[in-house]
Every structure is written in structure tokens, then in C-alpha cells.
Amino acid sequence: MIGYLNLILRLAIWFLLTANLSVANIIIGVSIALLLPGRPKTPGALKDWLRALGEVIVAIVQAYVEALEIIIRPHNHEDVVMERVKPQRTPGLIFLDIFLITFTPKTIVLKYHEDGWYEVHRVRRRND
């Protein structure tokens, strides 16, 4: 059986594509959402997604702080570092990690290495 979040996502995509909330379309959408094959569920996936949601909130605040820092004190030194991917990340969580790193003004992911590393470009002040 597919997870509730996956079912809701599939139905939301179906209703956005069809733009029709008739009874027949709802039945067709639920049938298709249940019949489409799903990935095997991982037991800690929901906990990881909730933790990732908290990281998104922190990243939004961090983005504003970093933008103000760049405006007030120019950052003229840059480097490329390798950061380790957190263990046992699903492809969706890896995408979210890359998005969060790139969302902040001082960092951007240049490349994701399949062996579990992000190549990250960052700007900083010389004395940081």
C-alpha cells in the first residue's frame, strides 16, 4: 500500500492536471493513484521529512541574515568545499538538501557526487 503523503501528492497532481472535481473524475483519480506502482516505504521517512521541514524554516531565516551580511560587509573570498550527504537520504531528501544549500545567498551546490558528497561553492569574508 502506498503512503498517505504519496497518495495525496498523486491526487493533487491529478486534480491540477484535469481541473475537474466531478465525482467521476475523483473516482478515476483515486483509482489511478492507487494503481500506480510505488517505491518501498522506508520506516524513518516521515521523521526525516518533518526534520527537513524544520530545516526549511531555518534556511529561510538564514537566507535573510546572510543577505543582510553580504550587503553590510562585502564577502570577497570564495572557495569550493566538499560536504558529506547525510546518511540514508532518499532522492527526495537529497533534492531538498541541495535546494536548501542553494537557497542561502552564500552557498550553491555545483555538483552532487553519487558516492555521497556535495560540491559546494561558498563566498565568505577573508577572516571567517
UniProtKB/TrEMBL annotation:
Keywords (alphabetical) are: Membrane, Transmembrane, Transmembrane helix
Does the entry feature the keyword Transmembrane, yes or no? Answer: yes
One GO molecular function term of this record is:
monoatomic cation transmembrane transporter activity
Q: Which residues form a coiled coil?
A: none
Any Gene Ontology CC annotation:
membrane
Q: InterPro entries under this entry?
A: Cation_antiport_E (IPR002758)
Transmembrane spans: 12-37, 49-72
Keyword Transmembrane listed? yes
Domain of life, per UniProt, equals Bacteria
A Pfam family of the record is MNHE
**Any idea what this protein is called?**
Cation:proton antiporter
Species the sequence originates in? Brasilonema sennae CENA114
